[in-house]
Design a protein that fits this description.
The N and C termini lie far apart (44 Å). The chain is mainly alpha-helical and 84 residues long. The longest helix has 18 residues, at 20-37. The chain contains five helices and no strands. Helix 2 (20-37) runs antiparallel to helix 3 and helix 3 (43-50) crosses helix 4.
Length: 84
């Protein structure tokens, strides 16, 4: 696993009421949700980035008000049309 070091202002953790480990976990989840929303990663890969199960990632998507579906209704119709 690759380790990455980032620097944040000392004032950030107290404002968020987080310790360093909690900050890292929230940041990993936030990045995973955003990258999933942007269609840069799959649910499986996003869950891996966040360090949680796929089921927990889907729950996190719901809490963040992000659709668990990457295809729009029009895209689904188009795919179905291509099959038949």
């Amino acid at each position: 696993m690759t380790a990455i070091t980032i620097q944040i202002p000392d004032s950030v953790l107290p404002v968020l009421h987080l310790d360093p480990a909690g900050f890292v976990q929230e940041m990993r989840l936030a990045a995973a949700i955003k990258w999933y929303e942007l269609r840069r990663v799959s649910q499986e890969k996003a869950a891996e980035i966040a360090g949680i199960s796929r089921a927990d990632f889907i729950t996190a998507l719901s809490l963040a008000k992000v659709s668990p579906f990457q295809l729009t209704a029009d895209e689904v119709r188009e795919e179905l049309h291509d099959l038949y």
